[in-house]
């Protein structure tokens, strides 16, 4: 059976603003994965991992700051997002496949003892990759993301509750989602909307006003609904593969390198709900670190406070002698 794969035409990205970066590609299982690789001559490397439904464009204002501070910056696009290939079947976009694709990307690059900034699904995928490849990183920054063990009754109930919330939400419009930002409206919007308004979604989850050109840049990877299998599927698989997630967490507890959390004060999904505290408690290397809350920032804090975020990371890397 041949995997139907779409590739966004290059002209869709022709008018991007503030994205002067050279495209790089690796092939993984016959799929072309796009990534940025800036400051290649610098000794230390930092990976920037995005989530759903964004892409490496999210890091455009942070990348030059990291390069100027002396870092090589690698920012991949998840399969199904950005300039990477887009399998058309939602069934292909399992949690395990996204972990496999990212792990393959890391292995092909062969870079070890790096640093990483992970946000949203970038963390949910990246942490499981780290469990499989513990030598990949020496420093880790986690931002507006979550991954946790689920055992006993929680393991049974959480997937059922999330499924119920999505079903109960009906078929929300982008306006309904903006008026009531919760998991149910999020999952149902992505499942049922005829054409996803990705730029509007990003705007809904930022505190600053994006320009029309910036919102179009977030729409660019998805010229028609056929390209949207990945962003549609990911809300449904948040609480999937829990047996493997639990095993990966057991491995992560053995990883003792320094960890920093930088969460937003206005993230409607994660702020003030203890996700950052839970991550801190799971990593020995998080103890005593200068964890911070980024103020006046929503879920996509890379858009809201890019300079502060980059400087926080740079200062911390220096403090920990990376």
UniProtKB/TrEMBL annotation:
The keyword Hydrolase applies. GO terms for molecular function: haloalkane dehalogenase activity. Residues 45-282 form the AB hydrolase-1 domain. Keywords: Hydrolase. Gene3D superfamilies: alpha/beta hydrolase. Its EC number is 3.8.1.5. It is an enzyme of class 3 (hydrolase). This is Haloalkane dehalogenase. It comes from Vibrio gallaecicus.
């Amino acid at each position: 059976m041949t995997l139907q794969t779409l590739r966004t035409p290059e002209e869709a990205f022709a008018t991007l603003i503030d994205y002067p970066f050279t495209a790089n590609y690796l092939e993984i299982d016959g799929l072309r994965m796009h990534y940025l690789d800036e400051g290649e001559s610098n000794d230390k490397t930092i990976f920037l991992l995005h989530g759903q439904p964004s892409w490496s464009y999210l890091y455009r204002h942070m990348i030059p700051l990291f390069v100027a501070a002396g870092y090589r910056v690698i920012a991949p696009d998840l399969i199904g997002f950005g300039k990477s290939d887009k399998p058309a079947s939602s069934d292909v976009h399992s949690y395990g496949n996204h972990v496999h694709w990212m792990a393959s990307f890391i292995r092909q690059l062969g870079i070890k003892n790096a640093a990483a900034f992970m946000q949203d699904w970038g963390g949910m995928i990246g942490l499981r990759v780290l469990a499989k490849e513990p030598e990949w990183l020496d420093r880790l920054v986690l931002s507006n993301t979550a991954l946790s063990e689920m055992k006993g009754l929680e393991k049974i109930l959480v997937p059922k509750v999330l499924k119920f919330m999505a079903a109960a939400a009906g078929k929300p419009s982008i306006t309904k989602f903006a008026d009531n930002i919760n998991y149910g409206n999020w999952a149902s919007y992505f499942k049922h909307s005829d054409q996803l308004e990705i730029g509007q979604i990003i705007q809904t989850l930022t505190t600053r006003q994006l320009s029309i050109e910036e919102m179009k840049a977030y729409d660019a990877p998805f010229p028609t609904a056929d390209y949207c299998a990945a962003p549609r599927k990911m809300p449904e698989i948040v609480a999937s593969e829990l047996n493997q997630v639990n095993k990966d967490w057991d491995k992560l507890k053995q990883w003792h390198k320094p960890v920093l959390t930088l969460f937003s004060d206005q993230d409607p999904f994660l702020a003030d709900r203890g996700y950052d505290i839970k991550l801190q408690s799971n990593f020995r290397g998080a103890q005593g670190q200068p964890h911070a809350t980024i103020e006046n920032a929503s879920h996509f804090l890379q858009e809201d406070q890019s300079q502060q975020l980059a400087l926080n990371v740079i200062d911390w890397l220096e403090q920990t002698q990376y």
